[in-house]
Amino acid sequence: MFIAMNRFQVKTGSEAAFENIWATRESYLSELPGFIEFSLLKGPVAEDHTLYSSHTVWASKSDFEGWTKSEQFRKAHARADNKSEGASLYLGHPKFEGFEVIQSERRKSAAA
Questions:
Q1: Which of 3, 7, 27, 63 is least enclosed by beta carbons within 10 angstroms?
Q2: For residue 98, what are the CA distances in angstroms to 3, 45, 61, 110?
Q3: pLDDT single digits (tens) 5-56
Q4: What does each C-alpha distance from 52 to 11, 31, 65, 86 come to in angstroms?
């Protein structure tokens, strides 16, 4: 498996606009082979931003790379600048982090 994450430092006061963009976006992930799961995570609040992370799980790194080269990826990222009234919602650029899963454990009775 492969986990792809993007970390976003969303400017204080822009959280609702950021969350709305994600909630109303067109997602094409399920059209791609190897896609397993997506989550948008909200993290700690700092003085000037709130940390968010998009988190996708793929069957393999090559499946993720296929996503990044697809027409669906281009369409999904058409609004990737996440600007509201001309100003960026971010402090800096999102930071990508990719991880190959080496070991995983799941509770047998875990809820989905």
A1: 27
A2: 6, 23, 9, 25
A3: 999 999 999 999 999 989 988 889 999 999 999 999 999 999 999 999 999 9
A4: 11, 24, 22, 21
